[in-house]
Specification:
Structural class: mainly alpha
Order of helices and strands: HHHHHH
Largest sheet: none
CATH topology of the largest domain: Arc Repressor Mutant, subunit A
Distance between the termini: 48 Å
Radius of gyration: 21 Å
Number of strands: 0
Strand content: under 5%
Shape: elongated
Helix content: 40-55%
CATH superfamily of the largest domain: Winged helix-like DNA-binding domain superfamily/Winged helix DNA-binding domain
Number of domains: 2
Number of helices: 6
Length: 115
Amino acid sequence: MRVPKPSRTFLEMDELAALLQAASEQDEPSHEAAPHPRLGVRTLQVQHLLSKGYQPRQIAKRLGVAQGTVSFHLRRLGMRVGHGYCGRRVMVEILGRSGVRVGELCDVRIGQLRL
């Protein structure tokens, strides 16, 4: 017995526009943090490593401190690392306009494509 294939569906342009709008509303805007007026040496080290792209757990390992210590210094800097996600709209737009599969997009790494 053959099972019928489901009919293929696609988004109309107005549906894609609505989806992009919803995704951008969910993205958390990145705010520039105002640093504490008197920063200690360790806080400046954390800030430097964060600006180089290290994650908090990598910073903790590199400085030989606990992750909680790194979190303390990040709060002191006014940073909210790991809270929220900014990229939903970009992901939805790439998926909606290019036709790549979700798994293919998730497998892309920094340096594998040029914009």
